[in-house]
Fold:
Amino acid sequence: MAISRREFIKTSAAATAAASIGVQLFPGKLYGGAFWTTWHKSVCRYCGVGCGVMIGEKGGKITAIKGDNENTVNNGHLCLKAFYLNKAVHADTRLKHPMIRKNGKLVKASWDEALDLVAKKFNEIRKAHGGNALAFYGSGQAETEETYMANKLFKGCIGTNNVEGNPRLCMASAVGGYLTSLGADEPAGTYQDIEKAKLFMLVGTNTAEAHPIVFERIMRHKNKNPDVKIVIIDPRKTPTDQVADLHLFPKPGFDLAVFNAIAHILVNEGYADESFIGKHVFIKDNEENKHTFEEYKKFLEDYTPENAEKISGVPAQDIIKAARMFGKAKTAMSMWTMGLNQRMRGVWANNLITNLHLITGKIGVPGSDAFSLTGQPNACGGVREGGGLCHILPGHHLVVKEAHRKKVAKVWGVPASNIQPKPGKHTIAMFSALNTGDIKGIYIMCTNPAHSLPNLSKYWKGLKEQFVVVADSFFPTMTTDYADVVLPAAFWTEKEGIYGCTERRSQYMPKIIDPAGEARWDAFILRDLGKKMGFEKEFAKYETAEIMWDEYRSLTKGKDMNLMGASYNRLKEVRGLVWPVPTEDHPGTYKRFTDGDPIYDALPAEKKKGRRMYFYGPKAKDGKATVWMRPHADPGEPTDAEFPIALTTGRILEHWHTLTMTGTSPELNRAVPKAYVEINPADAKKMGIKNKDQVIVETRRGELEIEARVIDRPAPGTVFVPFHWREWPINVLCSDVFDPGSKEPEYKVAAARIRKA
Amino acid sequence: MARLSQDVVSRKEFIRGFTHWFKSEILNSSDESGDKYQDYLLLPGIETLNAFLDKCNQCYDCVEVCPNESIRVWHKNHSRLDGYPVIVPKIEPCHFCDNFPCIDVCSTGAVQKKNSHLPLGVVSINEQHCHAYQDHFCLTCVNSCPESGKAISTDHIGRPFIIKDKCTGCGVCINVCPAEKPAIRILHTGE
Structure:
């Protein structure tokens, strides 16, 4: 401690005396000074779980992070990543001043110089080639306010719908799944269902490592209630298996047949709730033709457990067991994440899981839900709800609908004709267009696509050739290597704003300290860029984050994601609000489409007659959800004689995305210092590979030398590589075929082969 | 509702904060080893410490030959092992090579293959420092344990514990532990 004992006692005694009688002894932050920590409630910066954190500040530095005991998401618990977040705030790798590339090298520049250059270049491109030659690529980690500013600048002012973000790579298939199955995006239930569920079906999720606090809630719930059963469907055994009662190992990409086979058992063994189906559900095929329940049964005849075994490699007995467990359980919650979403048939996979809930009526009641886990802290809030993709506008509005364009344009104060009626380029199309030169300038915010895109090396060309602006808090990244201008962005704790997590909960994060160096808030950078590009009037009013939030919030009025009751004042006090939350006195909504949902409650009685749910979402008709007759489909790149092993990638517990944050903690780097390839011992023996050998993993797109970790985790025939390190960029090997509906690429399945290095 | 970010704290909060700080300072200073714990593991193939000290002639061939640079010379005054080869898992743990080159190269019989199944040390978890015992979800030691789940397991709420008769004492868990202060310790083997 820097102060003497005597000094300490003197000051604390005086302060205690003053505090006890409610007097503030010194102006300013008495205890936020040199030796006492002040605590601020906020939200974790990492995954989509949305844990509440308390951030400790001392002497203008973030010194400690702890779980927020009052936050119902995590009840004071955190994963170890969050504990070390303070190190990221003050890391040496923080970018502290703007930079411009001169003669091939990034050199320090002033803010005016940098923004003038970007404005000039963007305007030149726009004038010569039109607005569609520009693009914005954002992030599920950006605050809602930041994405909102980007949307207004690009869609509303520049006039291009080339606005995308990394959630396209992450949960676009879940959006497609919810919209087609339930008629509205985002889950019907919340985390509260966890403690009420009797069965969990975890599909394509390593919950323990990717969503640790959700997993912990499941684990504690099962511990208290031994009758709770857990079924895992995943080609890999993971730490999540410590709670598993049954594990099905489908070959990567061949699980659609398994889901249909489970439905087959449910329907044929009397677990289907025909009265629920009759009142709440349409049954449709791929061409959207309606079918009867009998026809659905007939469709499922092809998917006997034995047939599914032939396709997927999962023993028929296990499929039957899983189906019976699902059918018998009083309540069931399925959860999934990238294993279903990052697939060429990701939307179908989502539909098929939701089918199981719809045919058994295990939805809309406490403890039952089809619940998609989101990977990033504000993918739901900022991008799905905030309209940060090429086909949507803020507040669940669509660019193709004239009324929606008019409504948003009016709020933005721009002519409705500015907003293009056609969706812009989705992520893969956007980076392909950089390669071909159709897009000549791109603004990348808070994400690292030169590290995270699939079939990565293919897209470096465009980033090299076109004008690239990167706004990031950290430097260098693989993306700043290609930047012409780098802008330092304020990081978490240095800016206020809203994050919306997996369970529809919007939470407020305060600004606690000043940004590092010359860093500025992303929303203000975009605002000022807008002004410099000539949209002075359009961006004049955005003086504070609250003004942006309030304007955004006004667009949600009357929508399924009504946030009118979630004002800054209120959000500063509470631990988030779960929409729909239509008024300031509304507590938020636990279950959508049923009793207690303000939108459901306001429906006329005749609509609700004889039923317990009404799916009122924009894509639903007659208040009905849809059971889809989706046939099995193989992955884009099945294994073959030449490339006999299925490569799959993912996260680990200790690290996150491209290491810009977790890489700043020596403790986390020590825990897992480098990438590795997990190989099943049986495969390793066949190939003569020993633990810690250097091996070369190869796909049709490239090869990577990496250390082997021989471990009984991936099923034989499957290998796994985490994607975090720039030194081992496994995404170069990933396939970039994408789902025709959601446009989400199939990171999770690539045909590979392995040899000793 | 708890107070959030006010400049003035209540008397109760002040006292609670002070007590917490005081407690943690006391714990920190009173912490750590002294006589109970040590920083090193013995080499594989040692039957008893006395026999090893007797036979080893400090030629350091094992230090040379270790492919992982796990074996190093221990320097500590008043330690019986001062000058002897040991493994310091915080720097590099033992990876138990298939053919034990360190034993092969030993000409004195200080380390012998017939003893290579014996653990290199006995480790225990310091619950005060372990993330998992402070409500921070962490599985690093469990995930990295080469005995995959047999030597370190988790209890019903995810806290790790060591299964002593399965633990080889390789020290990988000590090497990877992401706690701020060492959360896995090596019990003293008797100097």
Observations:
- Confidence is low (pLDDT under 50) at residues 1-7 of chain B.
